[in-house]
Design brief:
Blueprint lengths: L1 E5 L2 H18 L4 E4 L6 H12 L9 E4 L1 E3 L10 H8 L11 E2 L8 H14 L5 E4 L21 E4 L2 H7 L11 E4 L2 H5 L3 E6 L5 H9 L17 E6 L7
Parallel strand pairs: 1-10, 2-3, 2-6, 3-5, 6-9, 9-10
Antiparallel strand pairs: 4-8, 7-8
Helix pairs in contact: 1-2
Bound molecules: 2-phosphoglycolic acid.
Length: 240
């Protein structure tokens, strides 16, 4: 695990977007794993700018997102599909035919999880997986638990996650369940980039980087990945 501390979120977004853009230039058919939440938004802005400046095309990339809430339609503005459309896909030439998402349709969860794993394998695995980290150490929606998960699964969200994310739900109650890629799916990515900013992440960052590898802090598993790079600002790195 490599840890890089930068001055602020803008500097991080420049560094991370460059890595992704260079990968896509080298391999236009790259398979990219994306994350939602506040952490990657600046990076997505830099990717949109590069696309608009004619520096890169995303038309041949295949994408997989980490997670989706149960019970939300894609068109629901609270869904993560909508978030990605709004913050990246719809503002670039990403081909929606190549966008893969866990479905919010609860009746289909099990089938959907199985098929998602098969699709990742059929695409040849994920080249770069982008991650944020929850204040409780979660990655994707892999909440603290007794064991590390492998493939995609349905998860009951913890109170800490509900407290962190409820603010984004204006017109309805936040769902209590989500589908998420498992830890195995994340760890099989060839390269992993995690972004954490702000003091509220300092404790989780400390446990991820300096703590023991334990499913009670799911992000700690990244210590075992051969190419995981952690981008921090000074506030999130303050306990290291
Ligand atoms: P955030 O969420 O980027 O909105 O802080 C990260 C996460 O919960 O994984």
């Amino acid at each position: 695990m490599e840890v890089i501390v930068m001055d602020n979120a803008f500097e991080i977004s420049k560094a991370v977007s460059s890595i992704i853009i260079d990968e896509v230039k080298k391999n236009p058919k790259a398979v990219l794993g994306f994350a939602t939440g506040a952490s990657p938004v600046e990076t997505y802005k830099r990717m949109i700018e590069a696309y608009k400046d004619g520096k890169v095309s995303f038309k041949d990339v295949t994408t997989f997102n980490l997670d989706e809430y149960c019970g939300l339609e894609r068109e629901d503005e609270n869904s993560y599909f909508y978030f990605m459309k709004d913050n990246l896909f719809g503002k670039t030439d990403v081909d929606f035919e190549k966008v893969n998402f866990l479905s919010g349709d609860e009746a289909q969860s099990e089938k959907n999880c199985r098929e998602y794993e098969e699709k990742i394998a059929a695409a040849g695995g994920i080249d770069i997986q982008l991650l944020g980290i929850g204040t409780n150490g979660h990655i994707g929606f892999n909440e603290p638990s007794e064991s590390f998960s492998d493939g995609p699964f349905k998860v009951k969200l913890t109170q800490s996650t509900i407290d962190s994310n409820s603010k984004y739900f204006k017109d309805k109650k936040m769902p209590g369940y989500a589908l998420t890629m498992g830890i195995g799916d994340i760890m099989r990515a060839k390269k992993i980039i995690l972004i954490a900013t702000g003091e509220s992440k300092a404790n989780a960052v400390f446990k991820m980087v300096k703590g023991e590898v334990t499913p009670s802090c799911p992000a700690s598993v990244l210590q075992n990945h051969g190419d995981a790079v952690i981008y921090l600002d000074k506030e999130s790195a303050k306990l290291l």
